[in-house]
Design goal:
CATH topology of the largest domain: Aspartate Aminotransferase, domain 2
Strand content: 15-25%
CATH class of the largest domain: Alpha Beta
Distance between the termini: 56 Å
Helix content: 25-40%
Largest sheet: 7 strands, mixed
Length: 437
């Protein structure tokens, strides 16, 4: 059947609230390529929204899944245990920041892991408050959604949300209202967080900060190292936990295994998902042992959490991340993408900002001569790229950012081809800056 037929069938049975960016149905995928039911091939610069960091159908991951499924698909670790839950937990303890004792909880999605991080923080500290930050995205379940900044379409009509969740400003250098030097600006942001804690919320009411070192859905906004270091200081000073949301930025994408390592900060709880399962549902909360060991037995968990087949995939993913030094590959392709993006910014006035950390590269579109977000142009470029056979996805509170998320193992030839297709899409939609005589 062709794509049109599948679309007609979809409309009759799939919930209307589920959106899809492109009117195609994928039949198979390999590496950085996906092929639809009509045989059309697309270069994938979305990678399952950052899930397929090693590329689609990586043979080692596929083999690990097949082998595991042939012996054990499910028992639930809460009833009958199995070794792989322990061995993958050991790997995460060794690979996450901090030479300290840690414990691990496996669940199924990034949002579910965030929910558990909130529960753990509240029970451990005996405080109710969770502080999130502007432009942050943490998931679509109620606690995670409460902490998420973007209202439409994620939150509109779903309230009321959880109490005792507060949102404070975080740095966004391109749109910073403070307009000071970077070091001054970052320090003033930390000071504003502390002032809100002391004067408005109450430091004895806050269990945890939750922050993405690079805000994903918010538009690939890197948090300055000074800001993350400042938050760590506040946590230590006031007995607050730091939850590091590495769901999109973690596992090599920024050029280090974990994005927060750029700042040299050790979080109290680290949340990972997306790339961890190699395409299967798996997430984890990794935290200081003194925190997780105090949580009441039976108060956290999940029927499917740490499924043995998903854990086998994770084992293969972690092996490849280390063996092939995937973070270094991410840094190399990120530099190439950033170079192209800067050239495009110089040429087109509609590209207001280019920002990157490793292979998280963003182009922010604005009305020419202003900083006014331009989501229509952003969407037009995405659709033009689609016609060129390139899959891209948007981000930002105003949907005016294109984020580049190719597999981190993409070859030089495919990367160049993808960037060429994006360049052609920009040429089709945008107008070059006028050249003064």
């Amino acid at each position: 059947m062709d794509n049109r037929t599948w679309l007609e069938r979809r409309q009759k049975v799939v919930a209307n609230g589920i959106s899809s960016a492109f009117p195609v149905f994928i039949d198979r995928a390999e590496g950085c390529w996906v092929t639809d039911v009509e045989g059309n091939r697309y270069l994938d610069f979305i990678a399952g929204i950052g899930v397929q960091s090693l590329g689609h159908n990586r043979p080692e991951v596929v083999k690990a899944i097949q082998t595991a499924a042939s012996s054990l698909i499910h028992t639930s670790f809460h009833t009958v245990m199995y070794p792989r839950y322990v061995t993958v937990a050991e790997r995460l303890v060794a690979l996450t920041p901090g030479d300290i004792d840690k414990r691990v909880l496996f669940v199924n999605s990034g949002a579910e892991a965030i929910e558990n991080a909130f529960k753990i923080s509240r029970q451990y500290t005996g405080r109710p408050g969770i502080v999130s930050f502007t432009n942050g995205f943490h998931g679509r379940t109620f606690g995670a959604l409460t902490a998420t900044d973007k209202n439409r379409p994620y939150k509109i009509g779903f309230g009321p949300f959880l109490p005792d969740v507060y949102r404070l400003p975080s740095p966004y250098c391109y749109r910073c209202p403070l307009k000071g030097s970077p070091s001054e600006c970052h320090q003033r942001h930390v000071e504003s967080v502390e002032a809100a804690l002391v004067d408005t919320i109450g430091v004895d009411q806050v269990a945890a900060f939750v922050i993405e070192p690079v805000q994903g859905e918010g538009g690939f906004i890197p948090m300055p190292n000074e800001f993350l270091i400042g938050l760590r200081r506040l946590c230590d000073q006031y007995g607050i936990l730091l939850i590091d949301d590495e769901i999109q930025a973690g596992l090599g994408r920024t050029g280090k295994l974990w994005a927060i390592e750029h700042a040299g900060v050790v979080p109290d709880l680290l949340v990972t998902a997306k790339a961890l399962g190699g395409g299967l549902p798996l997430s984890a909360v990794v935290g200081r042992a003194e925190i997780l060991d105090t949580i009441a037995k039976g108060s956290i968990g999940s029927t499917y959490g740490g499924n043995p087949v998903a854990l086998a995939a994770a084992e293969a993913v972690l092996d490849l991340m280390v063996q092939e030094n995937v973070p270094q590959q991410a840094m190399a392709i990120g530099e190439i993408m950033q170079q192209h993006a800067i050239q495009w910014q110089r040429k087109f006035s509609q590209i207001g900002d280019v920002r990157a950390l490793g292979a998280m590269v963003a182009l922010e579109f604005v009305q020419p001569g202003t900083e006014e977000p331009d989501k229509d142009t952003c969407q037009a470029v995405i659709q033009a790229a689609f016609r060129q056979g390139l899959l891209l996805t948007k981000a930002g509170l105003e949907d005016n950012v294109i984020r580049l998320l190719p597999p981190l193992t993409i070859g030089h030839e495919a990367l160049s081809e993808g960037l060429g297709r994006l360049g052609a899409a920009l040429e089709e939609i945008l107008s070059p800056k006028s050249v003064k005589a």
